[in-house]
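Let's sit down with a protein and look at its sequence and fold side by side. Go ahead whenever you are ready, and we will take it from there.
>
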Amino acid sequence: MATRKLMRAVVVSGFGGPSVLQFQSDIPVPNPGVTQVLIRDHACGVNPVETHIRSGAYAGKSNLPYTPGTDVAGEVEAVGKHVKSFKAGDWVFTSGTVTGGYAEHTVASEEYVHPLPDNLNYKQGAAIGIPYFTAYRALFHKAHFKAGERVLIHEASSGVGVAACQIARAFGMKLLGIAGTCEGLNLALKNGAHQEATCGQGVNVIVEMLSNMNLNADLQLLSFGGRVITVGCRGPIEINPRDTMAKETSIIGMSLFSATKEERAASSALLFAGMKAGLLSPVIGPEYPLEQASPAHEDIISSSGALGKMVLIL
């Protein structure tokens, strides 16, 4: 009987701080199901939502034990017998996994696997999933933005922020960005933010990453008919509904995990075309080896301002 291959992976057996991310080197390599793809991972994105899930504070927290991570990039190693879109050797990235991305191998359903444009490397591929699909959903599916509108991006130097900046600028929006550091502001400018103010006109769309802190101020910044898209929140906030009435503004929540199969397919098609054309290009920030997933989580929590997308290297 053949010995099952083993891999290195990060496993969470109990919710808590970054120390619950346990590096192990004897995890069995998973087998793909009939509609699944087995990927040899080369890089995995680290997303803020993964710190909330790990802590136990996230509403959709995982069953224990589990391996974190949704955004990997690598090479297809094997496919299930009903998989039609991919074959062994293909370069791919994912926007969702079955077995978790903080590992040397990952199983993902075919619909969450996407071709990696040949002008991007694996680290950039690992920076696409949650950041770019979230930014696309916020601007296209929820804000229903129009070319020429003014958009304000909070945390514009983060993974989602950079993605939103690039998408907004590529589709003709007047782009303003907020970041926590001078370096972050410079990164936002390099990725499409304008330096000019709105001349008192307000903004049409705000992409809000920390609504529990900023929502009151956001409502004052909107123009008539403006929309705040709440992408992130870490607690409650009290607002005055009158602030939405005079200018008939809207507060719209969004969750990437609520996207339909058709919406994900549309997002994938546009993002692939934009990256292939060089209009969209993920910016890589801090890099950590897989065995340092715990320090990576400490960094993403304590950082005063993100600079690009954090990734684990395998």
In short: The chain has a mean pLDDT of 93.
